Amino acid sequence: MAKKVETISLIDTFSEFKELKNIDRTTMVSVLEESFRSVIAKMFGTDENYDVIVNPDKGDFEIWRNREVVADENLENPNLQIGLSEAQKIDASYEVGEEVTDEVIFANFGRRAILNLRQTLASKILELEKDSIYNKYIDKVGNIINAEVYQIWKKEMLLLDDEGNELLLPKTEQIPSDFYRKGETARAVVARVDNKNNNPKIILSRTSPVFLQRLFEMEVPEIMDGLITIKKIARIPGERAKIAVESYDDRIDPVGACVGVKGSRIHGIVRELRNENIDVINYTGNIQLFIQRALSPAKISSIRLNEEERKAEVFLKPEEVSLAIGKGGLNIKLASMLTEYTIDVFRELDQAVEDEDIYLDEFRDEIDGWVIDAIKAIGIDTAKAVLNAPRELLIEKTDLEEETVDEVLNILKSEFEEGEPEFEPEPEFESEPESESEPEAELEPEAE
What we know:
The protein is an alpha/beta fold and 448 residues long. The chain has helices at 2-18, 25-44, 84-90, 111-138, 209-219, 221-224, 254-259, 264-272, 287-294, 318-325, 330-339, 351-355, 369-376, 383-388, 391-398, 402-423, 427-447; strands at 50-55, 60-70, 81-83, 99-104, 144-152, 156-160, 166-170, 185-196, 199-205, 228-236, 240-247, 277-282, 302-306, 311-316, 342-347. It is elongated, with a radius of gyration of 41 Å.
C-alpha cells in the first residue's frame, strides 16, 4: 500500500510540472531526469551507470541500472557490480565480464528518497519559473502592458499580469495624481527587470518619457508606419511635456498628425497621463530655431549661443518673459531638457537704458560681496541686467534665498528711481506749488 501511495505522489509531481507555462517539453524531460540522477547520486555516490527514461505525457518513468558481472568473491561495489550467482538468477547465460541491466523501482528506495526527489524538483521548478519570467520580460522592456492592481502599499503597487506574474509600480514611477483601487487595470511601460540573486523583479513606470512615446505610437498610425519620428521628449510627469517630431514626407504635417482633428488623437494620451499638458513641436537641426520653438508660446527677439558650454541667452520683450518661463518655471525647464541647452531669459532693453547701467561691484557698500559674487557667477554683472532678469530665474540659478534676492532688487530699484528726476522731470508737480504760492504772496500785503 505504501508503494502505491508513493507512486501516486510521484505522478502528482509530474502532473504539477507538466502544467507549468512557458516550459518546453525538452526542458521538462531534462529537468526531471536531472532530478532523478541527483537523488541517485546522493544515495550511491554516482549516477553514471543508470539510465533514466521519463515520460511526462503519461506521468511515469523507468530507471535501469547497468552492472558488471564479477565472480562472487570479487564483489566490492554492489552498485556497480553484480555477483555471478546473482546475475545467473536473472539469466543463466550470464558470464563474468558481461553487463547486466535490470530495472530499479524508485519507490523501493524509501520515503526519504521520494521526499528528496520532490524537494529537488520543486527547487528546479522554481528556478525555471524565475528564468521564464525574466526571459519573458527582459524582451518587453520599453513596451506598454496592462495589468490588474492586486495590492496597494505606501511606496509601491503590486500588479498581476494575465499569467499571474507579479509586477511592481513604485510610487516614484507613478504620476503624482495617479489613483487606483484593487481590481482596476493599470497601464504602464516595462522600465527594467532586476534579477538580483536569481529573483527577478519587473519594474513598471508611468513617468518615463518612453511611456509617452509608446502612447503616441499607439495613437498615431504615421509614427508606427515610420512616416513620423519622435526625435526628443521632455516630461515633468502630471504637469507638462514637450515632444519634438519630424516627418519624412513633406505632405505630412507631423504636429497636425500627432494632435489629430480637433485634438482627437492627443486627448486620449492626455487623459491617460492625468491631464498632463502636451506641447508638440516640429524638430529641426537648427539649434536657434529649435530653442525658439521649444520656448513656444513665447516670441523670441534674439538668441545668443555658447555651443561649447551649451548655453543660450534668450532676449524677449518684457511682455513675453512670463510666457517663456511659464507657470512655476515649467516652460523654460522643459525647453532646456528638450534642447539640452541651459537657457537664460533676459528682457530686451533699448540702447538708452543700457547706457545708464551700473556694474554690481559699485553696490558692495550696500550688498554683501558674497551675494554679488553669486549673481555674477551666473553671468549677470550689471544692475539693469539683474532688474531685467526674472525673479524666479535669479532665485533658481543663484541658490540665494527669496528674501535676499528681493532685498537686492529693492536696493537696485531705489538706485535708479532716485536718478530718474534728473532725466525725466515731471513739470506738472513743479508748477502746482508756484501757482499756489503766488496768490498767497499777493494777499499778504492787502491784509496789512
